[in-house]
Write a structure and sequence with these properties.
The chain contains twelve helices and 16 strands. By secondary structure, it is of the alpha/beta class. It folds into two domains: 14-269, Type I PLP-dependent aspartate aminotransferase-like (Major domain) (Aspartate Aminotransferase, domain 2, 3-Layer(aba) Sandwich); 274-398, Aspartate Aminotransferase, domain 1, CATH 3.90.1150.10. The structure holds pyridoxal-5'-phosphate.
Length: 399
């Protein structure tokens, strides 16, 4: 780094400069074969990414949103179902649910992990649903619709507390679709199974995004769905390709949701570096943790012993978030807010009738979170500078 104090929120240029020759070779080879859609590059990446996730199958698609939508439909969510997720996520989570024909509904998150609170899900089932005696399935009391799936979101690179969620899902025959769009390589220690599990390997299926800023990013739009169920994988392959398993023979109406060969080739090159990049993110997070260790009023990311996060984002909580963000910005330090408006309070969902106070944890947290610069190439010196500015702003605010 130069001696200017500009620290970006995210540096997408350095890794691409570093890999430029390899990435250009991918493009050149695609040009010379004119193999732009599907083919060996896509299949090769799918094999490698499935292995990376400890999942049996991977289906490359055109975005994380498509991955989630195809996963929901292929795993059995039907039009008119209710699908439960959390309100503190990117809107793509609920878009995918709506686009599968289902109705999204929410349970609040745990105040420390910011991911789906299993107790809140238990309470939702107890107070808002009845169990159908014949089928053993859940029916929503007020909505008079079947509740068929949950979508836990592995937020900021940390997996949701999956054991109790999986237990509830098994008891009530709920489909589990992991939103792993921010969690490539994250791990969860399952006490039930007494082993570490990778994001994308636990639910019936999972969606990953390769949007450029994600831990594994394409040079454009891309995504993938993983599953251990061959039938689900086959359905997702059909859904991404106009519902056909054989050209021009359409078993169902599908979508145009394929993964480009060029993006797949690029992702294969970058996948070889992902484990190392995730380690570098962990090192940067540890550095931040240490720098904030004795700071009052700065809540750092909570890391339970069952979690090995990959720090897609490093999110702190401070009371006066607006002032803090302005001071960092004045110092040339980029930050972000993920996310400022909970989904239940978005204009797009006005029609659902939610109100302020419905999901208090999410609402409280969303007013205080601030995402600090986080990317593999973040140096110790940069982390120190960022932390120094955060602490100085904190002291300034209390004087
Ligand atoms: C990025 C993201 C998505 C959507 O991925 P796209 O590739 O942009 O469609 C979905 N859910 C979460 C939590 C995300 O962060």
């Amino acid at each position: 780094m130069s001696n200017t104090s500009k620290i970006p929120f995210l540096d997408l240029v350095s890794p691409h400069v570093q890999l430029e020759e390899e990435l250009v070779a991918v493009f050149r080879s695609a040009l010379r074969t004119a193999g732009f859609i599907g083919g060996p590059a896509v299949e090769g990446f799918e094999r490698d990414f499935a292995a990376f996730c400890d999942a049996r199958h991977c289906v490359g698609v055109s975005s994380g949103t498509d991955a989630l939508r195809f996963a929901l439909i292929a795993a059995g969510v039907e039009s008119g179902d209710v699908v439960i997720t959390v309100p503190n996520t990117f809107i793509a989570t609920t878009e995918a649910i709506s686009q599968s024909g289902a109705l999204p509904d929410f349970v609040d998150v745990d105040e420390r992990t910011y991911t789906m609170d299993p107790e809140k899900l238990r309470e939702y089932i107890r107070t808002q649903c009845i169990v159908n005696r014949e089928t053993g399935r859940l029916m929503h009391l007020r909505l008079k619709r079947p509740v068929t799936a949950i979508v836990p979101v592995h937020l900021y690179g940390q997996m949701a507390d999956m054991d109790p969620l999986m237990e509830l899902a098994e008891r009530y025959k709920l489909i589990v679709i992991e939103d792993a769009c921010q969690a490539h390589g994250a791990e969860y220690f399952s006490k039930r199974e007494n082993r570490w599990r990778k994001a994308g390997s636990m639910g019936h299926a999972a969606g990953f995004s390769f949007y450029p800023g994600k831990n594994l990013g394409a040079c454009g739009e891309a995504g993938a769905a993983t599953t251990n169920d061959l039938a689900v994988a086959q359905k997702m392959r059909m859904l991404r390709d106009h519902g056909q398993a054989k050209k021009y023979y359409h078993d169902v109406e599908g979508y145009n949701g394929r993964l480009d060969a060029i993006q797949a080739g690029i992702l294969s090159v970058k996948l070889r570096h992902l484990a190392e990049w995730n380690e570098q993110r962990r090192a940067a997070a540890l550095r931040y943790d240490e720098l904030f260790a004795s700071a009052e009023g700065v809540i750092v990311p909570y890391k339970p012993e069952w979690s090995r996060p990959v720090y897609h984002l490093y999110v702190i909580r401070v009371e006066d978030r607006v002032a803090m963000q302005n001071e960092l910005s004045d110092a040339g330090i980029g930050t972000g807010i993920h996310y400022p408006v909970p989904l239940h309070l978005q204009k797009a969902y006005e029609g659902f009738g939610y109100k302020q106070g419905d999901f208090p944890v999410t609402e409280r947290v969303s007013a205080e979170i601030l995402s600090l610069p986080m990317f593999p190439q973040l140096t110790s010196q940069q982390a120190r500078e960022v932390a120094g500015k955060v602490l100085a702003a904190k002291i300034g605010a209390t004087q």
